[in-house]
Amino acid sequence: MMNELDLVIHGGLLVSDSGSQKADLGIQDGKxxxxxLNLTGKExxxxxxxxxxxxxxxxxxxxxxxxxxxxTSEDWFxxxxxxxxxxxxxxxxxxxxxxxxxLHEGLQARQSEAEGQAWLDYGLHMTIADVKLIPQIKSLxxxxxSSFKIYTTYGDMQxxxxxxxxxxxxxxxxHGIVMxxxxxxxxxxxxxxxxxxxxxxxxxxxxxSRPALAEVEAVQRMIYLAxxxxxxxxxxxxxxxxxxxxxxxxxxxxxxxxxxxxxxxLLLNRERYQDExxxxxxxxxxxxxxxxxxDQQAIWHALRQKTVLSIGSDHCAFxxxxxxxxxxxDFRTIPGGIPGIELRYPMMYHFGVRSGMLSPEQWVAxxxxxxxxxxxxxxxxxxxxxxxxxDLVLFDPNKEFSVTxxxxxxxxxxxxxxxxxxxxxxxxxxxxxxxxxxNGEVLMDKPTGNYxxxxxxxxxx
Length: 461
Ligand SMILES: [Zn+2]
What we know:
The protein contains 13 helices and 19 strands. It is an alpha/beta fold. It has a domain of about 325 residues: TIM Barrel (Alpha-Beta Barrel), CATH 3.20.20.140. The radius of gyration is 21 Å and the shape is globular.
């Protein structure tokens, strides 16, 4: 006879990436211990009328990230709590080792920042901006870092093709995955210089500095380079129709890759840069920039076709006052990035599932299961299977939420989604069997998130 369950969630509709069923879910010692009918436990939680879904896994966030001139307004404490309010229970952030730092030292520095501050379990991707660090990749994999991020642009971060191939080879040898920010650096530099020569420096010129074809070219090149070496590839924040088309072709050719997009590329377009108030326009400065409505449509289509299999927020928050505002005179100096850690899961429900674009199972796959698989933390995270961590969300498909910066918990003075009206919102967020948030109220008194070791990536299909 099994020990009595600690908590039973009964009467809800369990929705996972693979199907939906009316069943009870039993939790013991922080893990899912039983799924079935008529379960009983010490505590019974009524989920009638609600969906019970795996907590969101946000594969792409930037908390407490320094830039050349400032640091993101969002830190580990505020960012992970905001995420939890929106139903995300795991975040994956980045390590960017400082010059002279080893990968191990960079990892340790990020872990000690997050220690005691993170409300959620968190994993870390490692940025490789210097090929001299390649020999250290093997030991990082042993420390629970299986994803290595490279840039094809961005000054100091940029690697050339020869260096990229070397990273791809080393990561393949260690059974990891390479993430890439892909934009053609020469095109970006040339377009930017042209604008500078013409004195076009206001925020509204930012999208012209990073043309769509810069992304398409670099994404296609990365696909080919990864194919040459046979390495798993994760394409971050795809924003263009051309890029998702290239990813679709590669998938049909049998390549191991995961294409990610972000809510901002689905829900916002470049008209935002034309705002008469340049401060508002600056609030939308991010790279790659917001694109055209036809790109938005192409990415929605790619989600339906299961070409794009992962949704990250790319949450990178800078305040309008003063962080973006002080740089209004020159778009090149505006700290790039937009916030979105809190609303990723519910916005994808409203605009994806409620609109009929996506099934509920696809929604869970995109926002939870597939990111967990891609970075080797599934089925511990992103699943409703027995033995998975009991990171769960009770989601009310009828709860209305009107978006305004004051209603959010992100530590930033605006939201790009101001005025959106959502239907469908979490009413409870549970982490490892304990209630963290109920109806917007924080029930735990301090953060309990831990560093999460990422293992071998599983390419979702
Ligand atoms: Zn990013």
